[in-house]
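pinned: reference chain
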Amino acid sequence: MDTNQYMGMFLEESREHLQTLNSCLLELENDPESLSVLDEIFRSAHTIKGMSATMGFTTIAELTHEMENVLDLLRKNQLKATPDIIDTVFKCVDTLEQLVENVASGNDLVLDIKPLIDKLNLVAKGEVTIQTNSETTPQVSSIVLSDTEASIIKSAKDTGMQAFEIKVSLREGCLLKSARSYMVISALEELGDIIKTVPSTEDLEKEKFAFSFEVLLLTAAEAAKVHQTVLSISEVDKAEVLVCEAPSVNYIETSKVISDTVNIENNSVAKVEKNATAAQASSADKKIKSGQSVRVDIDKLDSLLNLVGELVINKTRLEQIGITHRLADLVETIEQMDRVTTDLQSVVMKVRMVPVGQVFNRFPRMVRDLSRDLNKEVNLIIQGEETELDRTVIDEIGDPLVHLLRNSIDHGIEKPNERQAKGKNPIGEIRLIARHEGNNVIIIVEDDGKGINSDVIKNKALQKGLITQAEADKMDANDAVRLVFLPGFSTAEVVTDVSGRGVGMDAVKNKIESLGGMVDVETKLNEGSKFKIRLPLTLAIIQALLVKVSQEIYAIPLGSIDSTISVTTEDIKTIQNQEVILLRGQIIPIIRLANKLNVPQKGNDSQEELFVVVVHMGEHRAGIIVDNLIGQQEIVIKSLGKLLAGIKVIAGATILGNGQVALILDVGALMQYN
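pinned: its structure tokens
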């Protein structure tokens, strides 16, 4: 079998299960007695083993098999989830991640997993506690019944029907588990009524199970018939049929196990009319629905978005033609087309949106490991992980957040004894928060550590020659703190694996700005620091205000605009060689766009009325003077290409309805370099 066609599915599902393993192991560390978490860990490991064995990745399959042995002992309570065992399993997960990424990159590097396997064997053999139990307990089914379900079984038995619990094991490596479970359930429904499945039908449909599941069936058929029916389904490896008695409490006692040779005393069970109550209950757990979602390659979504972008451009062009030539019929048609393209654009955008939780979920493990390495106690609180962002932004935002979190743990959070001396909780707290704010997503990394001393930052920057003494004298505390984003800046005295090279915060700023966003910092000594990232929802189609400077047209993203006002030349004052205006009691610096972009002027410097677009970056505001305001328009962002990538104040370009190219202004850079 050619497995290459399944490679994408294998990689994506393996990464999902590895993330589940990381999350569940963190839960297990906090609650070592949780059997439900252990079951989830076991299922994920078992699924990875089956998939990797099918694909021929024997190293991954071998390691997960040895992991399963230890996890099974934990499930049976023959081992306790000690810190040493959890650390060992964490190392296994890390190795599995590396093995999977080697497969993804085509790297043939062979990892030596023997030390890990030896450690797992030692754990399994050396720490097993043999449990003695003089009392023999009856075999109890794993299916838990409600009182209603128990009464259904009793009522059915009164009419001559029998309740069977069928344990179905699919062949390891089965690629279409959902389809096989559907076929099993469909076949059993021909014999009677299905009361319950474990896991639920929804989880079976979404393949949230390993390679086994259980079905509770009410039927008048013989056990041998039920057994034969299940085994007739392709890729069913094993089937066990258990005769179940109606319980007096919420569990099912299993009276007998039926294997390939079935011996049932009551072979003369007649086929009777189905109990009405049982039929009603089974209707809730009817057939598994077909898949409700599909995996789509991101390149196809990019192509679809590009086509929608071209559609928006041509729609704008048609609007321009209709207005120019006063074609009423065309204008009316364009209005309808506008509604359709807007809906289409909205759908495409939503398809590309994914929760930031996909990025956030990898951080609890990182925080746990790093805090232990630094001998600190840190509690990470994640909020708003359901907030959605464009897939292209999600793919890029991970590294900046890693830098910020590592910075908070290393520089922000104090050691437990230092925190106690300050009257703080010895356990530090870092909050990772995401929320929508207009057409932007705000991501906040906040800690309750020692904060940032602006004087120390200023002195360090002076020592490293990053600023001059004159620049330092002009800076207030907020401006001084922002020096942490300068290239080469670091307050660490010693270079370590965590910090000290002076590239982290600079890399954060550059990456965020390349995504069309901005980052700012707020801090209070001994109270903590807050890094606030503002990102656009999407990098493709945005609302913008078109403005005119001389004969040039520029686009300013609407998300950066506070308001538009008109002022006179008398309203503009000069403070410390900086032109400003007074707006609602606040002094706002002025940026003359024509001067900034070196646009030739044609004698309009003396005009009385000036148009000002008030923009913001974080808490800071500025006024951009333009010659004219054209109006709001939906624009498609196009890259300037590699040759023009270094232009700081231009974020990209767009094509207008008349075919003219308009440059899109980078408001953050414009304010920064003013």
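why pinned: The first strand starts at residue 162 and ends at 170. The chain has 22 helices and 23 strands.
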